[in-house]
Amino acid sequence: MKAIIPVAGAGAKLRPHTYTQPKALIPIAGKTILSFIVDQLHTAGINEFIFIVGYLGEKIQDYVKQTYPDLHCHFVYQNERQGTGHAIELTKNIVGDDEVFVVLGDTICDYDVKEIMDSGYSMLGVKKVDDPRSFGVAEIGDEGFITHVVEKPSIPKSNMALVGLYKIKETHFLFECLHHLFTEDIKTYGEYNLTDALDCMIKRGARFKPFKVKNWFDCGKKETLLESNATLLKKFGGKIHESVQNENSIIVPPVSIGPGCILKNAIIGPHVAVGANTTVQYSILRDSIIGSYTNLYEVVLDNSLIGSDASVKGLSRSLNIGDNTEIDFG
After folding, report:
1. Are residues 77 and 200 in the same domain?
2. Do residues 197 and 170 touch, judged by C-beta distance below 8 A?
3. CB of 308 within 8 A of CB of 279?
4. 24/41 Cα distance (integer angstroms)
5. Of 104, 119, 189, 263, whose CB count within 10 A is highest?
6. pLDDT at 326
7. Averaged over 104-114, what is the pLDDT?
8. What is the DSSP string of 178-229?
9. What is the CATH number of the domain that holds 274?
10. Domain boundary among 222, 251, 279
């Protein structure tokens, strides 16, 4: 089985961070979003990965090669973003007849990957939501199979949202339906959508079973990213690297603090993730994500997202600051 991870999106809702960093490499709970996905699939036994890259794709490629040198990886460039269906179609020659596990590049979920891989059916991950109109939606029949999927319906007939996890056994069928979308120019909201291809498969006789995820961590925008960071820190307990220099500072768990950090007269936590080689002095941080190689001095931050190589001095408020930024409120 091969894993396909589309990470070509521009991540507009996480700007300014995604001007300089792909969304998949945004840090959360001591790891990147992409590492949560790859580690989960690799632990379950998947060793071959296809990354669909585009915007800042060279950063994805460099990160994967450096972090996972032993994985068998392919990189496919989606130069024109025409939707998830278009992205998956680009992998056709690499996939061949193998089964695939497609995981959207901003999807961190809590579920049993091995159980899904071992199932004899194609399967789609779902989660009950209050307002399904912003998601792909799955309708489930009496026999437990999915009867219809539709992308962002204005009048949903189900509250089971597709979470971005797709295990597909009949890949030849998938690529036939993707080809059908292109030849008939079938688009949803101006894009060739994977959901439409899956619905085409169902109409032609493919059988999909739903599987419910225990948790679905939304990493799409600042507020939900910070909420997901807090939840994941609670779940995994956080980690303070042994090289961290702590001088007269208080740490309130759970937190994640990367290697090479210097803490001086600071209070950090709860629910704070700090990247490598960051210095925090005379500051109070809580419910925040701080990038690497950043300097914070005399600040009080709550619910803030600070990029890498940033410098912030002297303030008390909530911030959303991108990479390579210097701010002095003195």
Report:
1. yes
2. no
3. no
4. 15
5. 263
6. 46
7. 88
8. HHHHHHHT--BTTB--HHHHHHHHHHTT--EEEEE-SEEEE-SSHHHHHHHH
9. 2.160.10.10
10. 222
What the block records as the tokens of 260 is 């090479």
Looking at the structure, tell me whether residues 157 and 266 fall in a common domain: no
Name the average pLDDT for the chain.
Answer: 87
Residue type at 45? G
Dump pLDDT digits (tens) for 255-297: 999 999 999 999 998 999 998 899 999 999 999 999 888 999 9
With contact defined as beta carbons under 8 Å apart, do 219 and 227 qualify?
no
Sign of the alpha-carbon dihedral angle for 74, 33, 238, 267: positive
Residue 325 pLDDT > 80, yes or no?
Answer: no
Specify the pTM. Answer: 0.85
Q: CATH code at 187? A: 3.90.550.10
On whether the CB atoms of residues 329 and 313 are closer than 8 A, the answer is yes
Tell me if 230 sits within 8 A of 120, measured CB to CB.
no
Peptide bond into 27 cis (omega under 30): no
Q: Which of 157, 205, 198 shows the shortest CA–CA distance to 181?
A: 198
Total tally of structural domains belonging to the chain: 2
d(CA 310, CA 329): 14
Is position 270 within any domain? yes
Model confidence pLDDT, tens digit, residues 163-219: 999 999 999 999 999 999 999 999 888 889 999 999 999 999 999 999 999 888 877
**Residue numbers of the domain that contains 67:** 2-222
Q: How far is CA 206 from CA 123, 192, 197, 222, in A?
A: 11, 20, 11, 38
Give the chain's largest Cα–Cα span: 66
Amino acid at 137: V
| Per-residue pLDDT at 57 exceeds 50 | yes
Model pLDDT, residue 316:
55
**What 3-state class would DSSP assign to 261?**
coil
**229 domain-assigned:** no
291 vs 252: CA distance, rounded Å: 19
Rounded to whole angstroms, how far apart are CA atoms 154 and 151? Answer: 9
- Please give the backbone phi and psi of residue 278, each rounded to the nearest 5 degrees, phi first: -100, 145
Residue 11 binned pLDDT confidence (cut-offs 50, 70, 90): very low
Is 228 a member of any domain? Answer: no
